[in-house]
TrEMBL record:
A GO MF label: UDP-galactopyranose mutase activity
Species annotation: Desulfamplus magnetovallimortis
SUPFAM superfamilies named in the record: Nucleotide-binding domain
Domain of life: Bacteria
The name this protein goes by in its record: Amine oxidase domain-containing protein
PANTHER family tied to this protein: UDP-GALACTOPYRANOSE MUTASE (PTHR21197:SF0)
GO cellular component: cytosol
InterPro entries with a match to the protein in the record: FAD/NAD-bd_sf
Length: 445
């Protein structure tokens, strides 16, 4: 029999919240999932626009990774059809194209890059000195010249910050457990280093559900509901009713629900505000995603899943090409692209239409599509797309989470709940660990 003493309430129906919800519901807990949007998935949502399937956020799940998050996602997808592609992107700097993974490309780089890169590898393998900033981490692998010419403008465009001001963890993206303990040390010895280098030099395949990355979320949600979990979409404002150190109930959509545990996977800033915590705000970059479709299609499938454009002349930092995924499965006479624009003072005063118009002009400038071939556009903004990890981010993190520590049954996890720069498998892993923690926790009510 399902326990009826109160709910495990999960706020946020992204991959992290869905994973926790499903595992708890499967273990006969009374679950209530609250999602502010009209569908689940969070960033892991896909949609059809002008006959082309686009994703909002993630596209890449590596075929051969064997962490718990990846295995969980694959298991939940069951035997649905997936497409497999070699993962490749490029940084386009002026008239030069730097492909990642590099494969044999560095052999054709200018001599000064080549000499530094090979020199640095040798030094790194023999010394392994610790790095603090993104700048140091990249310089120690690829040398100063390559960093300055290629990576520095790339990072500036992606984040608005210079690599010297960003903590190395912004690049390394270490996992965090539900107590916010960092899981992966920056360097785990030479074996780890060699693995990292291998990933830069050899190609790996990614696999992708044929109806879009959002299929992972849809499948988990379906399993959650099948296991008896309840969902409220478009949930509206949530209020928390706490006594001293416990959250007793939540009020949402005009009803009050007694709470056993609250698993918060929405923004930690919002949670702190609901708790009236006078905390500092977790800093995030705001991004716009502009979806454009065009008449006409190039011959042959695109080589890159995305290209980065660090030069100042274009508004966007990155273009992603669904055609790299779909190839022959996509419409024959048109193509879609998605442009990522990170929030700069320059676009502060631009309307959404002005942003779209500037993108269409920049796409033509790059020689990608003529404006006369333009069909349709759509734009979304994501207020908290990437966390900003300054050099002192761990001190800031402590302060952000101080207020919540007071409550024995409130947990804040996931991409924005944990102020965590994580990929989907890591968000799922947090969801799994959260469910495991609740399932063995002594019931205090
Ligand atoms: C541009 C981009 C590209 C990425 N590419 C990849 C990739 O290729 N591969 C990969 O593995 N990862 C990628 N990631 C990371 C991946 O998207 C995330 O790690 C993962 O989707 C995070 O899941 P989550 O559940 O923690 O958060 P989210 O997906 O953000 O889910 C949070 C949910 O909470 C809901 N919510 C917010 N506020 C409230 C509220 N007040 N009440 C109720 N609900 C609320 C939101 O609507 C949302 O559904 C990418 C991320 C970005 C931004």
């Amino acid at each position: 029999m399902i326990e009826d003493m109160g709910y495990d309430v999960i706020v946020g129906g992204g991959l992290c919240g869905l994973t926790t919800g499903f595992l708890l519901a499967k273990n006969r807990r009374n679950c209530l999932l609250l999602e502010k949007g009209d569908d689940v998935g969070g960033l892991a949502r896909s949609f059809v626009f002008d006959d082309i399937i686009f994703d909002v956020g993630p596209h890449v799940l590596y075929e051969n990774d064997s962490d718990r998050g990846t295995l969980f996602l694959k298991k939940m997808l069951g035997d649905s059809e997936v497409i497999k592609r070699p993962f490749r992107y490029a940084i386009i700097s002026g008239d030069k194209i730097y492909k990642v993974p590099f494969m044999l490309e560095p052999l054709f780089y200018p001599w000064r890059f080549k000499a530094e890169i090979f020199g640095m590898f040798f030094k790194l393998i023999t010394s392994g000195a610790p790095e603090a900033s993104v700048c140091q981490a990249i310089e120690s692998r690829f040398g100063k010249s390559f960093y300055k010419s290629v990576f520095e403008p790339f990072i500036k465009k992606k984040t608005g910050y210079s690599g010297e001001k960003l903590h190395m963890d912004w690049l390394a993206r270490p996992g965090r457990d539900i107590n916010n303990i960092k899981k992966i040390p920056n360097r785990k010895g030479r074996a780890d280093l060699l693995k990292q280098l291998k990933n830069f030099f050899t190609s790996r395949d990614y696999e992708y559900p044929i109806k879009g990355y959002g299929e992972y979320a849809r499948h988990i949600h379906h399993a959650y509901q099948y296991a008896g979990g309840k969902t409220i979409l478009n949930c509206g404002h949530i209020s928390l009713n706490c006594s001293d150190s416990v959250l007793d109930s939540i009020s949402v959509s005009g009803k009050k629900y007694p709470v056993k545990n609250l698993v918060w996977t929405a923004s930690v800033n919002e949670l702190n505000s609901l708790l009236n915590a006078k905390s500092i705000i977790a800093p995030y970059i705001k991004s716009f995603y502009v979806f454009l479709t065009y008449n006409g299609k190039r011959n042959g499938q695109r080589e890159f899943l995305y290209t980065y454009h660090p030069q100042k002349e274009t508004l966007f930092a990155r273009i992603y090409y669904p055609d790299n995924i779909y190839g022959d499965y996509s419409p024959r006479h048109k193509e879609g692209i998605c442009l990522e624009i990170n929030h700069y003072p320059e676009i502060e005063n631009m309307t959404e239409q002005e942003i779209i118009d500037a993108c269409v002009r920049d796409v033509e400038k790059l020689g990608l599509f003529k404006s006369s071939k333009f069909r349709h556009s759509s734009i979304i903004s994501i207020k908290e797309s990437m966390p900003v990890y300054g050099l002192d981010y761990e001190v800031i993190m402590e302060k952000i989470f101080a207020a919540q520590k007071k409550y024995s049954n409130i947990y804040s996890i996931g991409r924005t709940g944990r102020f965590c720069f994580c990929m989907s498998p890591a968000a799922v892993e947090q969801g799994i660990e959260m469910a495991e923690h609740i399932l063995v926790k002594k019931n205090i009510f």
